[in-house]
């Protein structure tokens, strides 16, 4: 029995509750994963998994074993990474989960540079909404945290930005320039879905953190920021954007800031990890790279 592979197979099944998903993570056939876990159970003489035709779950012994095993494998990975770092090379897979907007607007333009710096690292990237249960299944999760964000996770700050209102000059020429937050009720608002607010409510903060809540009638509503930004550039309405995402559009005159002095929130791009105690060097190198990239932004 390949003991280490059996351990990693059990860890993957335990975290993902699926032989198929575990096989995809390990690049193994699901039947091979099942045999590896069965071999481990035979070796330990303990049942680690409950198996049915449709579901896999941990036994109580499996829960306890997975907790100890996860710490052990993290220490092993960290030791391996340290050795590789001292030899001048970093290698291995890097499982990344990124929110769609972060993947498109921040990660994608920098991914090639990271790959050139670390040819031995294999990024395995999933893009989608972040469920906090998913964080445990990835080495690092890239997500935007708002000022209302209070999840207890291990997070490294990559960059800070404010949410601001912007519009194309053509839209403002045709529809007028809002002079107060409450004027937005008479404008076409392009709204990104929020976990904290209804789509018909826009919350703004002034420099003293006074709050204005405005009832609006959205002209467009979407989770995807690109689907919000592009119509905004085309003059279809006013949208809230992270300032870091639109600074170049403002500099070139394609967009104009609306209601200067008001913001729609404070945003933080965070790299969320499972544990800071046993942070593999591959993951650490990726986070350090993103932080350095963010420092070079205007």
* Coarse shape: elongated
Rg (C-alpha, Å)? 23 Å
Q: Report the CATH architecture of the largest domain.
A: 3-Layer(aba) Sandwich
Pattern of helices and strands: HHHEEHEHEEEHEEEEHEHEEH
Q: Helix content range of the residues, please?
A: 40-55%
Give the N-terminus to C-terminus distance in angstroms: 54 Å
Averaged pLDDT, please?
Answer: 86
Task: Specify the CATH class of the largest domain.
Answer: Alpha Beta
Alpha plus pi helix count: 9
How many beta-strand segments?
A: 13
Taking the sheet with the most strands, its summary is: 9 strands, mixed
Unreliable stretches, pLDDT < 50, 5 or more residues? none
Counted up, domains total 2
Structure overview:
By secondary structure, this protein is an alpha/beta fold. It folds into two domains: 3-85, Winged helix-like DNA-binding domain superfamily/Winged helix DNA-binding domain (Arc Repressor Mutant, subunit A, Orthogonal Bundle); 90-298, 3-Layer(aba) Sandwich (D-Maltodextrin-Binding Protein, domain 2). It contains nine helices and 13 strands. The strands form three sheets. Strands 3, 4, 5, 6, 7, 10, 11, 12 and 13 form a nine-stranded mixed β-sheet that branches. The chain has a two-stranded antiparallel sheet with strand order 1-2. The radius of gyration is 23 Å and the shape is elongated.
